[in-house]
Write a sequence for this structure.
């Protein structure tokens, strides 16, 4: 008999708890697995030996179904950058001691790019000291920027929210007779996948968003204003989708960074609003979708939630097969009918790398997305989950805050 541990890290999504359910539900099927521990606040919980027995928290199928529809990370998260073990061996000794004390034979880390760096470092360290603990990464990120995998859990639901909200903004913006421009700021630090996904409205016959700007294309303010004026000559209400990470003058964003050196990005929408007001003089507003993109589970994609659970379960099977230092990935077989298989890849190939929006997806002017790219996005946003509600709003699963302290 052995125990396993699972943790969640990085930015929350609508699907990360579904992956936790996948790990937990699969573990319940395996007689060799006894306790399933949840690490509070990611790898920090392993370092501090702050673990909870998930079987005492998730006690029924109803709990699992509720957790599947709950956004964010029920176990808490962290932005902790694990140092190299040669630099701070005492951190790794604490991790090893926790795992030994709890008789943990496998550790599952649900997270994004930086979390896969932790998976890679831990698997290498355990091999170095001869500790038989399997380490498996379960992907998640709304940015969709993990290498090798076709897409990441969390992205489909975020894309569905972005497209739905853009659709509603479009309806709202066309009611007045005066010309207007609406700039919608969408998450995406270096990769424009989420902003590009707003183009799925074109598959419904919508002309909006009329302009789409992603970080993969060099941004010119002069070219932007020309683009806006051209679209205003065609449309009364112009809708612009812009990634938060496009190049802008110094001072537009705060310049502050997190533990991984990532800049805190916000403000490009407001900046472009002010520029349009000054240079064009029309009615203009900016909308920053902000954290709603990653926490709006009422618009979750069923495909996304189902796949998130499935890839979590596959991670357990991967560890039980004797593999370690792996990240679970999706490999797309067909767009139509949409077909994927779940596989694994070496964490060393994924950690500290980014997958960018293909240049072939972007039009020659660098200000919109080509129609054929919609075949990639559309399957990921399909289906609605059957929400459990209470007093008219979606019900969420939560661990009492005293457990998280």
């Amino acid at each position: 008999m052995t125990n396993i541990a699972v943790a969640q890290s990085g930015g929350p999504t609508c699907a990360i708890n579904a992956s936790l359910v996948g790990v937990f539900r699969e573990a319940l099927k395996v007689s060799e697995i006894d306790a399933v521990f949840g690490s509070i606040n990611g790898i920090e919980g392993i370092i501090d030996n702050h673990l909870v027995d998930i079987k005492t928290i998730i006690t029924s199928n109803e709990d699992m179904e509720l957790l599947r529809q709950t956004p964010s990370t029920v176990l808490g998260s962290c932005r902790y950058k694990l140092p190299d073990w040669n630099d701070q061996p005492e951190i790794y000794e604490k991790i090893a001691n926790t795992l030994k004390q709890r008789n943990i034979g496998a550790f599952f880390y649900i997270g994004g790019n930086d979390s896969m760096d932790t998976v890679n470092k831990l698997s290498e360290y355990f091999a170095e000291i001869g500790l038989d603990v399997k380490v498996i990464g379960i992907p998640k990120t709304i940015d969709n920027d993990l290498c090798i995998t076709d897409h990441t859990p969390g992205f489909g639901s975020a894309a569905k929210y972005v497209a739905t909200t853009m659709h509603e903004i479009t309806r709202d913006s066309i009611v007045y007779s005066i010309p207007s421009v609406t700039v919608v700021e969408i998450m995406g630090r270096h990769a424009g996948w989420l902003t590009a996904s707003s183009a799925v409205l074109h598959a419904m016959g919508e002309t909006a968003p009329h302009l789409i700007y992603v970080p993969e294309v060099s941004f010119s303010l002069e070219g932007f204003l020309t683009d806006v004026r051209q679209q205003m000559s065609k449309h009364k209400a112009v809708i612009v989708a812009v990634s938060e990470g496009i190049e802008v003058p110094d001072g537009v964003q705060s310049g502050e960074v997190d533990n991984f050196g990532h800049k805190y990005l916000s403000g490009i929408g407001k900046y472009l609003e002010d520029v349009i007001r000054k240079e064009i003089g029309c009615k203009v507003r900016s909308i920053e979708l902000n954290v709603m993109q990653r926490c709006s589970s009422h618009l979750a994609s069923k495909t996304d939630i189902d796949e998130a659970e499935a890839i979590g379960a596959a991670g357990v099977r991967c560890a039980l097969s004797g593999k370690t230092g792996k990240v679970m990935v999706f490999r797309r077989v067909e767009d139509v009918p949409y077909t994927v298989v779940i596989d694994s890849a070496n964490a060393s190939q994924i950690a500290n790398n980014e997958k960018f929006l293909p240049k072939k997806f972007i039009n020659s002017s660098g200000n919109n997305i080509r129609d054929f790219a919609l075949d990639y996005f559309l399957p990921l946003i399909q289906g609605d989950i059957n929400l459990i509600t209470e007093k008219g709003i979606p019900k969420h699963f939560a661990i009492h805050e005293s457990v998280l302290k």
Residues 279 and 300 are 39 Å apart (CA to CA). The radius of gyration is 22 Å. The chain is about 35% helix and 20% strand.
